Amino acid sequence: MRPRRLRPSALTVLGAVAAAAPLALGPAGPAAADTRPPAFARHAATAHGLTPVTELLAQRLLLADKVAAAKYGTATPIDDPVREARILDDVRTRAAALGLDPDAVAAVFRDQIEANKLVQRGLYARWDANPGERPTERPDLTKVVRPALDRITTGLLAALRDTERARSAPSCGPRLAVAAGWSASTYRLDALHLEGLVRALPSVCTGAR
To answer: DSSP assignment of 88-157, as one string?
Structure first.
């Protein structure tokens, strides 16, 4: 029987973000300066082992903006089951080569795909309601966006390998929440991208409750 996964709740992550710094009111992106209080930095140090994972999750979510901009107003759908299945098959193969559980790794990437689509749908709704906010440029999905996603995939696989012990520990849930809060603050994730980050977390921890 597979162990139950620790799932940091939205409220837990929001609490960690609130401790880190207020959510940015402007566009999401890396913070210009670190204004987090020293007390939070001390707590974040205990989650340091998981921040390589949450940093990559935040970066992947920010790329959802470019994916959405590339697709918006075209016939290309947000959902692409064929490509999604191909990605999951690829990460299963690569996970096995790294000595990781292929199904557990595929579950992490399935959550990333769903988080990415959540952000895309949110952006579509925002742009539909506010035409002035619609993107003025269409990134090249094949030549620019997907190669960037592929680089993050490679990095995330390595981070999952390097954090395997931390992710299976009983303390993974709260440590992951703090790491997510740290990364959300670093990248100034707005409410939509924070919702995406919460959606990206459920399968990261693999330890039993």
So the answer is: HHHHHHHHHHTTS-HHHHHHHHHHHHHHHHHHHHHHHHHHHH-GGGS-SS---IIIIIHHHHHHHHHHHH
